[in-house]
Amino acid sequence: MSGLAPELEKLLVLQEREQRQMRLNKELAAWPNEMKALEQRRSDVRAGAEKKRLEAQNAEVERKKLELEAEAHRAKAARYKVQQFETRKNEEFTALGTEIQREEKEVQEIEDRELELMALGEKAKKEAAVEAEGAKVKEGELTVKEEELKKKKTELETRLADLMKEIETLASGVEEGLLNKYRRIMANKKDVAVVSVEHGTNCGGCHMKLTQGSAIAAKSGKAGATCENCGRLLFWPVS
Questions:
Q1: 118 near 110, Cβ under 8 Å?
Q2: CA 4/CA 216 separation, integer angstroms
């Protein structure tokens, strides 16, 4: 930066450090959302595994219900057979026979459904086991990423703390009036307060054409030269 006024050199160094500070702050501000995204992924993984486990469990519950239902129909059929054996009336005998057939048919239909549920249940159990194993692996990967994010945060905070100390030292070396002006511009523009003159005529901040007086002031190395359009401080680039 030889050729620049010492105060401008200091400001440019300070500005670069503060821009670095803004980037670090932005990364730190994004950190909670990164952690939240990891937690959401962990929740999704667990929900997927739980869904498969419940599917297997529900299939078994339904199968047991059918088993009890079939047993109830068998018991009815057995009672009807006893009553049929004991009756001496032909009409009653025939009616009981019809009831027995109906109960036995119910049992057969239930057993068929039970076999289907058993097959579905076995499939669901296998899928649940695969899902649980996959979830375990994914959770392990997420834990590693979580630790990396925590480490990243610590590193960012350390770098930021060191940078803020450096910024404080740099700022103390700048003339107070110029520093205050720089601070006001930076607070207003949010990005850059000190810019170069482009092509000898334009502001490097707003890219508007400078007045001749501003361009000359910047070229002379005057520390307080500013753009009339955006108010940013100007410096003439060193070739």
A1: no
A2: 14
Q: Indicate the pTM of the whole model.
A: 0.70
Residue 161 phi/psi, 5-degree rounding, is -60, -45
Q: What is the pLDDT of residues 18-34, one digit of tens each?
A: 999 999 999 999 999 99
Of the candidates 198, 197, 188, the residue with the CA atom closest to the CA atom of residue 217: 197
pLDDT tens-digit series, residues 184-202: 999 999 889 999 999 999 9
Domain with CATH 1.10.287.1490 in the chain: 21-173
For the domain spanning 21-173, the CATH number is: 1.10.287.1490
